[in-house]
Structure prediction request, 379 residues.
Amino acid sequence: MKGDRIFALFALTWLFYVGSHGQEEARLQCEDQRVFNIVDFALLEHNKGLTAGGQLALYQVLAATKAQNETGEIMSVRFTVRESDCPAGGDKVWHQCDYLQDHSRPSSICHTKVLLKETNELLSHECSVETPIVPDPRPPCLGCPIDIDVQSEDIRESLSYSLSKANTAHNHTHFFILNTIGSATRQVIAGFRYRLQFDMQKSNCSKSEFKEMTEECHADENEKTFINCNSTVDVAPWRHEMPETHVQCAPGPLPGARFVVRRRPPGWSPLRNIHNFIVVTPTKPPKKDESSEESQESKAPTGAPTAEDQNPAPPTGPPPPPKPSRPDPPATPTASTSCPSKPWKAFNPVIASPPRPRPPPPPPKNKTERGLVDADLLA
Prediction:
């Protein structure tokens, strides 16, 4: 009795294992010919039941799986379709047709499940219009800072006050001139608030000799010293007041900026577009002439062949063992076709342009209009 129970428990466990193992699904490539045959079979059956409109044609295969159960092999395919130019009930089948190039006709998504036998059996098939996902429009953030172009003339005034404030607040013997602008934002408050990130380089103009920066001031290439600054400038033009400027600077260039030696053209000013400068690549100073006392061997370039290298002595002793040849690297496997598949045909809807308005008709001619006669002059 106890042995029968153990056998029954073992049988149930085996049946459960076989049933669950049989239901496992295997993914198929979306461009597999077997998948296309299932789609063709499903669309032929679907188009037979249409009585109006155009036949549906395949657009793209999204996913395909295959499973095995006690009844046989079942294939499930998910794909998208579009309406074709072949009418329902016509002599042509869907793969002999073209899409209706109309952007107002939405695509549909279909789910098909077929039992594979000598004559395939359509277990289920359903198509529904694919609803496009339209993101919610983000309302504009009133009063939030917005990015502006660092080359815009809109920041010219704010940048000028920021440079002047930075030179006044920075306790250095020389003036600093603009090097690069990192970012700029503008915010609408009770006026406009500009926030700027920039860096400055030490110039050749000392504060003891110059009261302010002039056209003679340029970057000091002998002593490259930088400061990076963050400034906030509040501007309200209708108040007829000086902008309120706050600047905080730290030593060093702007983080993440790349610097090269720049040659400023004549008439350059600190507020001119820095991207128009000519980039000069620094060259290495020429080497001094070597002493004549050095031998010709020392002047020979490294790696030059000598007399001994050109006429090597014959090797003595047994020859060295041959180096083991390295195996060729394995060929890189080609990537298999993944899902979704490529579109079956190109869909290029033609968007009609709105008709041009007709020109206004010419003003009607006055039938009584006539030229001057002698009677008009006498009157």
The helical segments are 2-22, 33-48, 156-169, 296-299, 307-310, 374-378.
